[in-house]
Write a structure and sequence with these properties.
The chain is mostly helical and 52 residues long. It is built from 3 helices and no strands. Helices cover 56% and strands 0% of the residues. The model has no long low-confidence stretch (mean pLDDT 93).
């Protein structure tokens, strides 16, 4: 079962109407601090295009 870090989620919300760079940044930090869901395909594709 994935780990859910409720404290992290309360402190770090995805910005409203986040652009792709903000989404990438949030998901990278999220992956390091919480394991409740995988990075969405569209974000992974954008990360690959940007060389992540």
């Amino acid at each position: 079962m994935p780990n859910f870090n409720a404290e992290w989620h309360l402190r770090y919300k995805m910005p409203k109407n986040a652009n792709i760079d903000q989404r990438i940044d949030w998901h990278i930090r999220h992956e390091k601090n919480c394991n409740c869901m995988p990075i969405p395909e569209k974000v992974r594709e954008a990360m690959a295009k940007k060389g992540f």
